[in-house]
Design a protein that fits this description.
CATH class of the largest domain: Alpha Beta
CATH architecture of the largest domain: Alpha-Beta Complex
Number of strands: 13
CATH topology of the largest domain: tt1808, chain A
Distance between the termini: 26 Å
Structural class: alpha+beta
Largest sheet: 6 strands, mixed
Strand content: 25-35%
CATH superfamily of the largest domain: tt1808, chain A
Length: 205
């Protein structure tokens, strides 16, 4: 999702979490919350939506029969340590779900988070948001997918407890998600996009 400037209607004062949740429950559009500020979110372009749907379908199929389940961008995540409420493009939860005040909506313990990048949020997703996500104790992997080029950055916790990066730049690659024991072909992730139909094999820098 795209994060804009703080919504005009909410930008003149700080809001409590309780006020944000009340406003958000009545809103027709999604908003992020961070340390008293509320940020409007807007829609995405078709390439973004195709890649997100492809990932969701692939994850759903691969996780059938496993104790993990993927959720789409309507699922709100809360990070208690830094106050962030946000809507990742895809989140995967394993085992028993934990939620804020047992409300069964503001989930706390994802195993993997996916963001399909947009031009206006790329820096935010790569830097500040990744820092926010690292405050989630249950998180084991963070995956950022470029929808306009074949490029995936997959961060995961290594055996020493540090985040390490693996990049995928070829349509022939296979995305590995060791925390849930799943692999997904980039052919499947980029299926029906302009990239796949043009026959592009990968990108280099």
């Amino acid at each position: 999702m795209i994060v804009n400037e703080p919504a005009i209607a909410y930008s003149k004062r700080k809001y409590t979490i309780e006020e944000y949740l009340e406003l958000e429950n009545a809103a027709t559009e999604k908003h992020e919350y961070y340390q008293g500020e509320i940020f409007a979110m807007s829609g995405n372009k078709s390439q973004h939506n195709v890649v997100t749907m492809n990932l969701s379908i692939a994850l759903g199929g691969k996780l059938t029969g496993k104790p993990c389940r993927p959720y789409g961008s309507d699922q709100r995540i809360h990070i208690e340590k830094n106050t962030l409420f946000t809507y990742p493009d895809i989140s995967v939860f394993c085992g028993e779900l934990e939620s804020l005040n047992n409300d069964d909506f503001n989930f706390l313990n994802p195993t993997i988070l996916f963001e399909v990048l947009s031009p206006s949020t790329r820096d935010y997703d790569k830097k500040a948001k990744f820092q926010f996500y690292q405050d989630i104790l249950s998180l084991r992997e963070y995956v950022m997918v470029e929808p306009e080029t074949i490029h995936i950055e997959a961060f995961r916790i290594n055996d020493n407890g540090f985040w390490e990066l693996r990049e995928y730049r070829s349509i022939e690659d296979t995305l590995e998600l060791p925390s849930i024991g799943v692999t997904i072909s980039l052919h499947d992730i980029y299926k029906d996009t302009r990239i796949a139909s043009s026959g592009v094999k990968g990108v280099t820098k």
